[in-house]
Design a protein that fits this description.
Order of helices and strands: HHHHEHEEHEHEHEHEHEHEHHEEHHHEE
Number of helices: 16
CATH topology of the largest domain: Rossmann fold
Distance between the termini: 56 Å
Strand content: 5-15%
Radius of gyration: 22 Å
Strand order of the largest sheet: 1-2-6-5-4-3-7-8-9
CATH architecture of the largest domain: 3-Layer(aba) Sandwich
CATH class of the largest domain: Alpha Beta
Structural class: alpha/beta
Number of domains: 3
Helix content: 25-40%
């Protein structure tokens, strides 16, 4: 479908088809190939569903038209698979969304990109290193892609606002998650782009985050895992990147820090170690001049990234020529619970818990800790004294701090 240009009617039919019940990227592609267009596929769907012993809801034309109009009022638009503005790396994956909703500057999707992903409950050291990576990647003319989550994602987006960043949502473009990143999302739209394959008004569910993760990796030439627990959504992103033939990088960390378990495991199983931005830039520069190497991933890397899977990401209409949809393990669905210290409550936040969550075995400067916590410097100093007396933290020469881990 390279180089296509859709009419308004065709674009509406594409949206109706992908928004119909039990139609995912693979079944969409199969139906288009069988019937030659979305309009004919929509006409054939009722009989196909009956043959499969099912009844499916077909998206009405007026419902699809309302979504078009709502997206236009937001200032966004749909880009169809195969159109000139559709991101080339994403087009190469076998579960590319037929329509990508874009808010912001679509031209940024044509630049070479690197995904930076990691823990929501990130350490201050992890966020500082992420910011360094994002800044250096931007200076090397790479766009930074991430998922707008707390922690590592937020640090990646904030640092790359000036040089170019793309946020991929698990829900609709009008359903920013987490809500605390709504101001950041607005700033991204001003200079970069926010994208989603989900309908407007869609509130993300657990199974939507792996869907989102495959787009984060699919938009990028490589994926860098900065911090990740052994079971986390970041490792799902790494698995997708590997299956898509993209390079996977992992930042090593202390074996005493649970947030480093996932990255260290990826390195042991074949991911490229990333200790500085040059490790990423030098590895990916040649890919800018040639087509993506969509090689078959190694078994070790699939297993390292959590390949054992038990649940498909789409409940697609069972057509003989449809290959199985990507799957994931429910226990690795990437929908991490909010750290207890950061959950909104009726009272004041537990400052001690916030600071402990930001500290790890690697020493971090006091100024960096204050910035990462968002707390007043005076409050941080007071709480640190209490934590030191309790034996929870250590002070090092030069005034740096680390957490005492069991």
């Amino acid at each position: 479908m390279a180089g296509i240009v859709l009419s308004d009617r065709q674009r509406l039919d594409w949206l109706r088809l992908i928004r119909s019940e039990s139609i995912g990227p693979r079944s969409f592609r199969s139906l288009m190939n069988r019937f030659g267009g979305a309009s004919a596929a929509l006409d054939a769907l009722p009989d196909l569903a009956r043959q499969a012993g099912r009844h499916i809801r077909i998206c009405p034309a007026d419902e699809a038209q309302r979504e078009f109009e709502r997206l236009s009022r937001l200032g966004g638009r749909f880009i169809a698979l195969g159109e000139a503005d559709y991101p080339i790396p994403l087009q190469a994956i076998d579960s590319a969304p037929p329509l990508l909703a874009v808010l912001g500057h679509a031209a940024i999707l044509q630049r070479p990109a690197v995904a930076l992903v990691g823990s929501r409950n990130a350490s201050a050291a992890g966020m500082k290193f992420t910011a360094r990576l994002a800044r250096d990647l931007g200076e090397a003319d790479f766009t930074v892609v991430s998922g707008l989550a707390r922690g590592i994602d937020t640090a990646a987006h904030e640092t790359s606002l000036e040089t170019g960043t793309v946020a991929v949502l698990a829900g609709g473009l009008d359903e920013i998650y987490p809500p605390q990143n709504i101001p950041l999302a607005r700033r991204i739209v001003e200079r970069g782009a926010i994208v989603s394959e989900m309908p407007l008004g869609w509130v993300a569910r657990a199974r939507d985050f792996p869907r989102r993760n495959r787009l984060v990796s699919g938009l990028s030439l490589g994926t860098v895992v900065v911090e990740a627990a052994r079971r986390s959504g970041s490792l799902i992103t790494a698995r997708f990147a590997n299956e898509q033939g993209r390079q996977v990088f992992a930042v090593p960390g202390s074996p005493l820090d649970p947030r480093a378990e996932g990255g260290n495991h990826l390195i042991r199983e074949g991911a490229t170690l990333c200790a500085e931005s040059a490790h990423v830039i030098e590895a990916l520069q040649p890919m800018r001049q040639r087509e993506l190497d969509l090689s078959v991933p190694t078994r070790a890397m699939r297993e390292a990234a959590g390949a054992p899977a038990s649940e498909a990401m789409w409940d697609e209409l069972d057509l003989p020529e449809i290959t199985p949809a990507p799957a994931y393990s429910r226990r690795e669905d990437g929908f991490e619970a909010e750290p207890s210290s950061l959950r909104p409550t009726g009272g004041a936040p537990d400052s001690g818990r916030v600071l402990l969550d930001l500290l790890g075995p690697a020493p971090i400067a006091l100024d960096d800790l204050v910035r990462a916590s968002g707390l007043a410097a005076g409050e941080v100093g007071h709480v640190l004294v209490e934590l030191e007396l309790a034996g929870a933290i250590r002070r090092h020469p030069g005034g740096t701090l680390s957490r005492n881990l069991p």
